[in-house]
Amino acid sequence: MKSYKDLEVYSLGLELFYRCHSYSLKLPKNKMYELGSQLRRSSDSVPTNIVEGYGRKKYKADFVKFLTYSYASCLETVFHIKKIAKLYPEIIENEQEFINRYNELSAKIYNFIKYVEENWKT
């Protein structure tokens, strides 16, 4: 692996971030800066923490810490998606499919954390 761009968790996280961002901009103006901002920040945090962790890959503990932040941001993003889907069902198409993609990403990040903990050479 030559770059964080080679990581599947990064690619999937970035793809899902772009979807979240576009959904957040469809919210009513009074919610775009509250709930929309929370969704944008948590979904952006997923790939961003992967990138920052990769930048610290020389230090296994730091890498794991940032991957763990990324994992937690996945969970937070699912929570925001569920809130938006309940309050504004017309905003998010295929809510369950979207949640499933985030759950898939969460599992991949979790497995990657385990891999790094057990196999990463510094």
TrEMBL record:
It comes from the Bacteria. It comes from Flavobacterium soyangense. NCBIfam families: four helix bundle protein (TIGR02436). This is Four helix bundle protein. It holds the Pfam family 23S_rRNA_IVP.
